[in-house]
Amino acid sequence: MAPELGADDFAAMMNASKVCVLVHDAATKNILWANPAACEMLEFSLSELRPLKANHMSSSAQQYDRVIGRAWLQAAVDHGSSRIVWHYRSKSGRVIPTDAVAIRVELARGPAVMVQFRDIQRAEEVERELKLTTSYVDALARHTSTVAFMLDAAGAVRFATDSALTFLGLTGDDDRLAGEPLTAYARLYLDGRPVRWAEVAAGADPVGPVQLEVSGECATWLEGSLERLSESEVDAYLMILHDVSERVRGEARRELELRHENYLARYNAMGDLAMAIAHELGQPLAAAANFIAGIRARAATMATAGDVRDQIAGQMGYGLDSVARQIDRAKEIVGSLRSFVGHLEQVEQLVDLNEIVRECLYFIELSAAPNAVEVEVRLDPAPVPVRCERVLTGQVVMNLCLNAIDETAECEPLLRRITVSTQVKEGVGVLTVDDHGRGVSRDPFAESFTGKPGGSGIGLALSHRIITRQHGSIWAELREEGGSRFGFALPLAEQGAT
User: What keywords tag this UniProt record (predicted)?
Assistant: First the structure.
């Protein structure tokens, strides 16, 4: 059983108390005792306090007259307790407003009055300071541009500035965020990889980096620090952030441009190879043409020797004519390749987009025929005048159509159809190629340029380069009825321009 507290124990507790205590004799109202807190506030020692009367240690104002003070103490004697707002005066003359309670107590020597009081002026000052601090915090939260969150150990938001709420799509009057985990509104990142709150909090020792991605129509990226604040064995975290969306988007653009340049470098390498092939093939093709011409001359001489020779010569002639046509065709292909690969400089021409499609149509249909793919053409009834490089723009049309044919060749027979369209729309000439294939799963112009197994992506990379270099735009999208639509737009030429 625990021992009972003795008189010395109670005296020790009273001396340690921060509440001011005076003990008066119930009959004479003389001061019998004061605790250290009262002596400190009144600036008198206990021996100095004992002979003092109310007028010696109270305000000189009429409402604090000695008669009133004695009546207050007597009310406690008569009724057990009494309360009053009293102004004490310290030894140095400082007036101390207090909230004082007088209580009758029975001591071994007889009844006494114990007065407990506190400095309400100091309490009011503390309250004013607290209100002022609260006003400052409120002003900071509502008017600063700083993005700041105060979070608890679990990552739930306990405080946020208005600018922080704005980034999350909330307002200062919206209390949905209070107590909610920050990860319910945004994703946490470290070194560019998504992480959980526990990992970010563990890195705050006491300060660590943090990134925040806020989803939306256009993702917002915030970056800054997370600082651990330990107060009274309670962990809290202060997150200070700033908007780095433009930097992140700029890095993404530079990465895309780098990929474009890489593809273009591959294209240039292929162009050099094509030029070498064209150069090496040109001479043997010319020699082959000369040999065929010689054989034709011999065959004409042999044809005069009789009917059999006439028959042989006729068959040779037919065969050689066919070979000559194929060689001429090969020469045309090599010439076209040389023209295309060598034509790297920007040469603007005033061209009807419809005419470019017509020029490419023969080659498009030639590629479509082996796969039984129908090519439907829907050209704008009026000319679609654009200023561009004719040969390179034609190559873009070919690339988009051949990709559509490859995709459509895998479809059921009834769906093997591509549609090539042109139109004038909002100051640009537009060409689109629709197919009934699987549909694009992502934007090929923003990522790898190809979705084909084993595809190099050079065709689309080159198309992107050609169109954007001519101040146009190129895109890919899903069609509501299934399949994909690839297209590009070039600025219309001014009327009357040459």
Answer: ATP-binding, Kinase, Nucleotide-binding, Phosphoprotein, Transferase, Two-component regulatory system
- State the Cα–Cα distance between residues 45 and 57, nearest whole angstrom: 13
423, 380 in Cβ contact below 8 A?
yes
Q: Using one digit for the tens of pLDDT, what is the confidence trace for 27-48? A: 999 999 999 999 998 999 999 9
Around 198, how many Cα atoms within 13 Å sit in the side-chain half-sphere? 0
For residue range 300-321, list pLDDT tens digits in order.
666 555 555 566 666 566 666 7
Of the candidates 252, 20, 231, the residue with the CA atom closest to the CA atom of residue 117? 20
The token pair at 324 is 């000559």
Instruction: Give yes or no for a contact between 96 and 87, defined as CB atoms under 8 angstroms apart.
Output: yes
Indicate the helix (H) or strand (E) that contains 269: helix 245-302
Strands 110-119 and 374-378: unpaired
Overall domain count for the chain: 4
Preceding omega of 3 cis (within 30 degrees of 0) = no
Task: Classify residue 424 by burial, with Cβ atoms within 10 Å: 0-12, 13-18, 19+.
Answer: middle
Domain boundary among 194, 213, 243: 243
349, 340, 341, 343: which is closest to 490 by C-alpha?
A: 349
Tens of pLDDT along 409-441? 888 888 899 999 999 998 899 999 999 888 887
Q: DSSP assignment, residue 438?
A: S
> Would you say 395 and 431 are in contact if contact means Cβ atoms under 8 Å apart?
no
Residue 99 sits in the same domain as residue 154: no
Asked whether residue 51 is assigned to any structural domain, the reply reads yes
Max mean pLDDT among 4-13, 200-209, 247-256 falls in: 200-209
For strands 417-425 and 428-434, give the pairing.
antiparallel
Closest CA to 25 of 148, 112, 135: 112
Q: What is the residue range of 153's domain?
A: 144-243
Please write the tens of the pLDDT for every residue from 60-117: 888 888 889 899 999 999 999 999 989 999 999 888 888 899 999 998 889 999 999 9
Please check whether residue 125 lies inside any domain of the structure: no
| CA distance linking residue 114 with residue 102, whole number of Å | 6
| DSSP string over 52-119 | --GGGSB-SSGGG-HHHHHHHHHHHHHHSEEEEEEEEE-TT--EEEEEEEEEEEEETTEEEEEEEEEE
Separation CA 77–CA 79 (nearest Å)? 6
DSSP 304: G
Let me know if residue 131 belongs to a domain. Answer: no
